[in-house]
Amino acid sequence: MIKNHPFIDGNKRIGTHAMLIFLALNSITLSYNDEDLIDIILKVASNQANESNLYQWIENHQE
C-alpha cells in the first residue's frame, strides 16, 4: 500500500496501520518508538528500504 498509492492521500498511514494490525492479529508484538517506525516507513516509501529490510526491522523490534 505504501508504494502502490491506492489512495489519493494517507497511503503511508494506512499501510502502517494495516501492517501493525496484521502483526497484532498474528500475535506479533512490537516494541518501538514513533521515530523508529516513521523512519522505516519513510525509507520503504522512498525505496531506501525493501521488503527484506522491513522484515528485519520487524524481527529486531519484536518483544
From TrEMBL:
InterPro entries reported for this sequence: Doc, Fido, Fido-like_dom_sf
Name listed for the protein in its UniProt record: Toxin-antitoxin system, toxin component, Fic domain protein
Organism: Aerococcus christensenii
Domain Fido: 1-60
Record's signal peptide: none
PROSITE patterns named among the record's database cross-references: FIDO
Classification via NCBIfam families: DOC_P1
Pfam families, per the entry: Fic (PF02661)
GO molecular function, one term: kinase activity
Coiled-coil residue spans: none
